[in-house]
Structures are given as C-alpha cells and as structure tokens.
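Workshop exercise sheet. Pairs work together: one partner reads the sequence aloud, the other fills in the structure field after running the prediction. Swap roles for the next sheet.
Pair: D.N. / O.F.
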Amino acid sequence: MEPNLHHEERVFINKLAYRFGGTPHRGDIVVFVPPAELASPNDYVKRIIGLPGERVETRNGYVYIHKADGSEMRLDESAYVAEPTIGYFLSDVIPEGHYFVMGDNRNNSGDSRGGNWTVPLSDIVGRAWIVIWPPADWGRAPNYRLPALITT
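Structure field:
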C-alpha cells in the first residue's frame, strides 16, 4: 500500500465499521481474508475501488468505473497513487455484496486484477483506522471517500 501505508507499520482496525449495516465506500482501506486460490496465511490490506454492480477498467494510466446505468467515470486518485497504473484491465461485473480492491502501489500489487477476484463483505475484517507504529507515522489511516469522479 505504498506510498500511504508502509512495511512494518502497525494499524488499528475498526472491526465494527461494516458489521451493523455499514457498507464499505470507494476509497476505504480494508483488511480482508484473501481468496482461497491465493493460498495466503496472512490477511491483505487494499483500497476499495469498485462497488457491487460496477466494472473496473484500467487504461492509459487511469482507473475507470463503469456504472450499471452505462455511465463511465474516471477516478481522481491523485491524493494517494504516486504512479499511474500501467496496462489494460477490464473486470467482470462485481457481484452483489462483493468489492473490487487495488493496492496503492498499483504497478506492484497483488489485487483484484490478478485473477479477477472480488472480496465478499463477509471476508472483510475491518477498515484501517489509525496508524500507531512507528510513532513518527501516528495518525489517521489514509482513507479517502471517492465520490469525486470525473465523468468521461
């Protein structure tokens, strides 16, 4: 999740964020149990990019969201992505109750693009809340609400 979360940082997770009717938002950093096909004993930390009913596309260095109504919007990710996304990708429609996730280090991230998998809400452990270690990095986790979409 570089450049926003760093290796060896410690982060408090809000495990109740989505348990009582709350739903993940585009831009939330979540901790989740990875899909079984990845055979990882560790939880993953990624940012929610696509919501149920949408398709996610990467092209020309940008991430586009295709809504169910046929509209297409480009994400403004300038606040948290240091390098443009390389390569082309188009996801399947994200199933109800699932989320498409990507790492902030887009060009070096094992995320929903690899295998076109999504994360069911039931596998989300919680939302990143506060960075507590090292002390110099203490502060709120860099979650961004991303309704700020550019219609294309």
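Discussion prompt: The chain has a mean pLDDT of 83. What would you look at next?
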